[in-house]
Every structure is written in structure tokens, then in C-alpha cells.
Amino acid sequence: MEDPRFRVIIVGGSIAGLSLAHCLYKAGIDCTVLEKRHEIAPQEGASVAILPNGGRILEQLGLYDAVERLTEPLDLSHVRFPDGFHFSSDYPSTLRERFGFSMAFLERRQLLQILYSSFPRKARIHTDKTVVRIEQREGSGVLVYTQDGSCYAGALVVGADGIHSNVRTEMWRMADLRRPGLVTEQEKNGMTAEYGCIFGISSAIPELKLGHQITSVDNGRSIIVVPARRGRLFWFMVLKLDTTYRYGSAPRFSPQDAAKWCEQLKDLHIWDNVDFGHLWQARETYSMTLLEENVFQTWHFGRIVCIGDNMHKMTPNLGQGANCAIEDAAVLANELHRALKSASHDHSLSDQEIDGVLGRFSKTQIARVRTIFQASRIVVRMHTSDNLFYRLVLRYYVPYAGKRPMELVLKMLADAAVLHFIPLPQRCGAGWPRPTRKEQSVRAWTWMSLAMLKCPAT
Prior knowledge:
It contains 14 helices and 21 strands. 34% of the residues lie in helices and 27% in strands. By secondary structure, the protein is of the alpha+beta class. A hairpin with a 2-residue loop joins strand 19 and strand 20. The chain has helices spanning 15-27, 52-60, 64-68, 91-99, 108-117, 166-178, 185-188, 255-264, 276-281, 321-341, 351-383, 388-397, 404-414, 437-440; strands spanning 3-11, 29-34, 47-50, 76-80, 86-89, 104-107, 125-126, 131-137, 141-146, 151-154, 156-159, 192-203, 212-218, 221-228, 232-246, 269-271, 274-275, 283-295, 300-301, 304-306, 312-313. The protein has an 8-stranded mixed beta sheet. Pfam families: FAD_binding_3. GO terms for molecular function: FAD binding; monooxygenase activity. It comes from Aspergillus leporis. This is FAD-binding domain-containing protein.
């Protein structure tokens, strides 16, 4: 039973926002979701990877079966180099054996539709609601104003509105007024982009077999291809740009920009007799976006907190963007559930109690996300041969490193969040026990072995 005395206003009907709505519902915490777009699940041409760390939480929420019905299990992962050399890994099937969950690939819009259609209180999800202003009133909650003149009152605002976040902007504005210098200009300008990405979906090509994921690496570019159900292929091409852009000055790519790149790269070899031109000719939908990279330091201020891409943006080569967002939702719900359960006054939380909740949440997730972010940052540079060191490591070390790269990934996944107020899924495998503190502190350079992990779309 939801307690209306504590309401969370979630801004953004994203994977992060809708996952949080489900977590809060299970915790008995009231929420309202405000989405600026007209529809929750538009076709954008992108795929998304759900790995065991996100899949276990979705299973707790009763959603993973719906995801699994739309996906094709992966068994093998292959990496191909320009000289024709390639190596393979049984990493996908090992994931399933260790954790009880496969690598699941589906369209982003399909995952959003699952999250939306299965939410028990759809009347609390509002579209066409662009947030323009947030007011915090000391000791009395928050007010969220939208472009159409509506106003929503709550105890907490959660920004899940993506990289171009209005909530993050409002949080910074309030911090600048009340605690000047808390959010530095260096932090505000810390997001950069060196890569672009073309996401696409194509019709099936017989030479690319179900259950086999392929990564073709090259100088300044890489492409990852995943055969999917119903005769389709998910693919994304990562491209090194000619300059490094900072947030606010970065370009937006049109369909014409994407098509121009794709026409130029039709001869890029993928596997056997398949070139990128075959995928391009069989295309159904595609789009191009900038790949920003950053982990912000300030995740909350007052009664505002941000999650997902608002606070951490990484390249898609590790497939962890959506999974980290789902973990954010679970950890925040855990903290709120614990605090409200022990609240001594009418199931409400004071400003000081809210600050404690959000402080614990951000401390936990910043440490977790930084590790994954560093891994993702290194892997994309290996896949695109960013320098000689990365090129040599991927070509001459990783193929001969045995199980070590896989074990590093498994340790990272084993440290994932879980909802504390819902029983663990019966399907969980033996790989879930948390690693020791020593295992959590793996130095960033050891993540070079993670180049064996290649998953599309966050």
C-alpha cells in the first residue's frame, strides 16, 4: 500500500525513471512520473543490453520474463581484426551458467514499453510534461512546474531525464544560490565527447548466426553486431571524431550525417564474406548520436537527486549504461525504504534525513559507477585502436590471456546492487556472492582485459 504522505516526483520516463517507479511501487512509496515526450517508447533505432546486474533487479520486479521472451540467448562472442585474425570467447554462456541470466539484447523501445505497460499505476505516468522550474521549500518539500502550467508537489525530485537534464540544471542553479562553489565550473564542464555512434537495426543476413555476437575492430572505428529474434540484426558503429567536444558545444547529427558516414564505410569487413555494406543495404532504421563520457561528483542537493545518464554517461561497448541506471534505481529505493520504515514521524523525512539518504545513495553509486566507467573508457579506445598501446594489448595480449578477462568481468557483475526488500530470484546462480574489498579495488589499468566484453547500446 502506497503512503501518499511521501511522494517522489520522477522527471523522465527513461529506463532509469521507469525502473525507479517500479522499485518505489514495490517499496510502497508513492510516485509520479513526468515525461517530456508525447510517447514513452518511440522508435529511435537503438538496441539495449541487459546483463545479469540489471536482469536480476528486473527479475525481482517481475519484469525479466517479458524481456527474455523478446531476446535470443547468446553463446559465443567473436572479435575480428583488420588483418583477418580473430578470437572467440564463451563469455555469454558463462554468464548464464554463473549468474542465471543471459546477455539479453532488445530494442530500447521494447524495454521502455515493458516498463510502462507493466506499471500498475499508469495514471501516475504523464507525457508531454516538460519541467521548467523546481522550487524547494525548507522543511516542506518541493514543487515541480511544467511548461503547460501544471504544478506537482512532492517530498523528493529525482532527475531521470537524460544527459540534457533540466533537473540537473535546476539542481545546479539552487546549489549556486545556497552554497556557491559546491558545484564547480570544472564539474559543470566535465562532460566531453571524443566518439560518435551510429545505432541501427537491419534485416537478417544468413552468414551471421543467431547466438553469435561479433565485434569488428579497426583504426578509429569499430562495429558490434548481434543477430536477434524475428530475423533482425542489432548493430552499432563507434567512430572516433576529429576533435574532442565539451558539453554544450557538441554537434547534433542528422540522418543525413549518419548516412554519409555509413556510405563511406560500406567496405568495412565484419565477418566471413559480410561487409558493413550488407548491413547498410538491409537497414530498417538507424540514427547517430554523440557519445559523451563523464561521471559527475555532485548527485544531489537539498531534495533533488539525479540518476542514470544525468550523472554518469559512458560509451556503449560494455553495455552497462542501462544496467547502471537500473542499479541506481534499486539503491535509491533501498535507501528510501529503509529511511521511511524507521521514520518516527508520520512516514515523512526531514531535510536532514533526506540529505542523509541521498548522501548514502550517491556515495555508494559513485564508487560503483566509476569502476564501470573506467572499464568502458578503456574498452572503447581498444576497439578503435586509439593508440599503439591499446592496439597491441587487444591484438597480442587479450587473445592469449586465458580466463582472466572473463573473471574480471564476473567480479564486477557480482558486486551489483539488489533490492533489499524483495526476495532474491530463485534463478540466481552461484556467481553472485559479493567480492571482497580487495577485489573491488582493482586498478583501472587491469581493465584492459575487459576488451573481450563487447555489448551494444546502453
